[in-house]
Amino acid sequence: MHWVGHAFIAIGLFFLLVSGLGVLRMPDVFNRLQAGTKASTLGFLGILAGTAFFHPAWIVRLIILAAFLLFTAPLAAHALARAEHKRASESEGGKQ
To answer: Torsion angle, CA of 31/11/52/36, rounded to 10 degrees?
Structure first.
């Protein structure tokens, strides 16, 4: 059963690596936010799922962490995207 936990952790680490590369390689703020939020959410969920196989007593805590992550990551990305859009709109308006 431990190999399933290792597989989930490996999948999570892969998504975290892809997230880091996406943040570095994407051309603008909005693409970076999308790459960072989507891939890192999947990465952390994979690691939490893998941890559940190693420590079954922690499942309730891991579910709470996963729920917190699923609620806060999209909200944070939305707030950052909105702030960047507002900043970009104001800077374009000032140039006219």
So the answer is: -10
